[in-house]
Amino acid sequence: MNLLRKLLSRTATTGLAALALAAALLPWDWTPWAAWALAAGTLVLAWREHPELGPDRDRFARGVALAAIGAVAAQHGALPAAIAAGALIAVVGFEPLLAVAVATGHMTSANLEVQRDRTWFTPRAVGETISASGFIFALGAGGSLATGTGGPLWIAAVAALATVGAAGAGAAGALLQRRRSAHAGDQAVISALEALEPQFIVHFSGPPGSAYQLEMWLPYLDRLGDPYAVVTREKTHLDAVRAATGAPVVVAPSMSELERLLVPSVKAAFYVNGSALNTHLVRFGHLKHLQLFHGESDKASSFNKVTAIYDTVFVAGQAAVDRYRAHGLDLDFRKVGRPQLAAVATGPRTASGPRPVLLYAPTWTGLTSEFDYSSLAIGKRIVEEALRRDLAVIMRAHPYTRFNLAAARRLDEIERLLAEDAERSGRAHLWGSQAAGSVGLVDCINAADIAVCDVSGVATDWIASDRPFAVTDMAGLGERFTEEAWIAKGAYRLDRDAANVAAVFDELLVTDSKAAQRKETREYFLGETAGDAAVEVFTTAAKEAYRA
After folding, report:
1. CA distances from 204 to 20, 256, 294, 364, 506 (A)
2. Which segments cross the bilayer (predicted)?
3. Residue 211 carries which DSSP code?
């Protein structure tokens, strides 16, 4: 269903626009109003999805909708309808070029005192003006249909011509600015950053839905006490990042914009993933480049040799150091534990309500089969075993799970199973947005008695609780599993076909024969500090790294 909703959201505007144009060409008395309503609906949907300039995904649909409005309006005023439709279709068609012009000297930012010389030719102002002109055209066309006259259309024509004129004037001014300086940047943002005097910046780039990688670190970077700025390369992350910190956030899509943001006070850059765009900043040798990553695991990505480009790599414990060295990388490591786990309740398993609770947290399928550690193929078997034993289930899937159609289908099947069981039995399961979003992983860990997870960062985070857990052996390594997934030394191995699922749950719920080994594994991966002491370890190491 989620995939269907996404598909509908991506095709709704195009479909409505096509229907509007078809209705506009039909000869029946009622079709002009149908065409008008469908076209107006297209414009409203496009505006709601993309309130600012540059909705490239909907440019075609908006152009078709404007053509449909023009076709029905031409019956009562051919000249003003042609002027309005032609002007607006032209400005929508040239929107990508206009977006470049608008972006000249204007970087989107948040939590930053920016005083601009230019207040009208901004992305939001231009985008809203184009949308408003489209709505005026739709209203004028509706008025002409209702009155049978072309008068209302002349108002729309004037508004459309004014929009084209303003966009042209603004674009011309931006072109002149670009001719005066090849890398003008946004002086208002640059001046605001210079006044702030940030000691470091945090560089972030990632696909939609990946802002959690940065969000997990922001509270601890805030605790460092020094001014800093977050630089994200994609605008899609702005709202999430702005909500997670009071530090300035600047969107810098281009390399030249990024370069101008390196004001003299900046001494270092932090990174939270291995994005290819990190190289745009790593090339600046006068900065210290500090890699935090966003989780600690035995995945192959956790010993990628590209990590050598950073000056210092922050890791949770000795396990990460040994893992890198085992694969030929001996870097400047800082062992800081996982400050995000400070609130994890540590201790023996205790009752969590009327029945034990299982946290099932499968990882995503990765971009290639080499990095596919996901257990969703056997996820239904795992959940069915939990239900057979009268457990409540917290189903927390990786945020990228639905990037893969097969994984999304399996996740939907498990969530349907939980929904049906909750209705039938009254067991308090959590899944989907209930087990994510505002409910963090630490909250899920604290609410669970046992866990089943994959080779992923969840396993390392869970071990902070010192409660029983199982790790899935999806590569079918058998007895060699612990040689590749060191975290599994403190866990119970679940076969790739889930053939031993009953025996694993017996260990999790009854026997727990690895309790002593789990404590050793916990210290190996996370170090000896826990709680607020782990936060202090990180803040001390971070300050030493960027102030040196």
Report:
1. 41, 16, 12, 21, 43
2. 32-48, 60-77, 83-104, 125-147, 153-176
3. T
219 HSE (CA, 13 A, CB side): 9
**Cα 447 from Cα 440, distance rounded (Å):** 11
Residue carrying the six token digits 């993309």: 50
> In the numeric block, which tokens belong to residue 60?
């075609």
Hunting for tokens 């509706």 — which residue is that? 142
Q: What is the mean pLDDT of the chain?
A: 89
pTM, rounded to two decimals: 0.77
Quick: pLDDT tens for 226-278.
Answer: 999 999 999 899 999 999 999 999 999 888 889 989 999 999 999 999 999 99
Question: According to DSSP H, which parts of 181-308 are helical?
Answer: 187-196, 212-215, 218-222, 238-244, 255-260, 279-282
What is the distance between the alpha carbons of residues 233 and 254, in angstroms, rounded to a whole number? Answer: 8
Task: Give whole-number Cα distances, 288 to 112, 116, 211, 545, in Å.
Answer: 24, 31, 23, 8
Q: Which residue, among 366, 371, 422, has the nearest Cα to 398 in the 3D structure? A: 366
Separation of alpha carbons 34 and 30, rounded Å: 7
Q: How far apart are CA 431 and CA 450, in angstroms?
A: 16
Backbone φ, ψ for residue 52 (5° rounding): -105, 175
